[in-house]
Specification:
Radius of gyration: 15 Å
Strand content: under 5%
Number of strands: 0
Largest sheet: none
Number of domains: 2
Oligomer: single chain
CATH topology of the largest domain: 434 Repressor (Amino-terminal Domain)
Structural class: mainly alpha
CATH architecture of the largest domain: Orthogonal Bundle
């Protein structure tokens, strides 16, 4: 899925869920602990949203973060995750990389990321942008949404 498609899916999902709950944008922004402007940019497909922000929105909307990107099913009730969304993405990157038999350096090259970046992702679970998640998913030959699935 191209980064613009990820942005579009996130935007559509957030907007749909917010309206379905009759929740004003300002209320969602406060509940998610983000600025109103950040929410506006997400809903207008202009933000390269960070994974942590996606997790905050999912908690505020009471859905699983995976549901923002899974167009095949209706949003499920959010269940308590055992790990943060950043850690979940990190663990999935490691799992899919191992399944492909790729080294960390091989994945770095395939995703056009800075040297040592995948090591950092797998060891420290940093907050990444949708663009980086999408580049890693493309290099792993999986849908980006699968990296969000626990």
């Amino acid at each position: 899925m191209a980064t613009h498609a990820l942005r579009e899916q996130l935007s559509s999902s957030v907007l749909h869920l917010r309206k379905r709950r009759n929740m004003p944008a300002s209320a969602l922004a406060i509940a998610a602990g983000i600025s109103r402007n950040t929410l506006y940019l997400i809903e207008k497909r202009a933000a390269n949203t960070q994974v942590e922000t996606i997790e905050r929105l999912a908690i505020a909307l009471d859905v699983d973060p995976y549901d923002f990107f899974d167009v095949s099913a209706a949003p499920s009730v959010r269940r308590r995750r055992n790990v943060s969304l950043c850690q979940c993405v990190s663990q999935n990157v490691f799992r899919y990389r191992k399944q492909l038999g790729l080294s960390q350096e091989g994945l770095v090259r395939a995703a056009s990321l800075p040297r040592g970046y995948i090591w950092r992702v797998e060891r420290t679970a940093p907050d990444m942008s949708l663009e980086v998640v999408d580049r890693i998913a493309a290099a792993l030959k999986v849908q980006a949404s699968l990296l969000f699935k626990e």
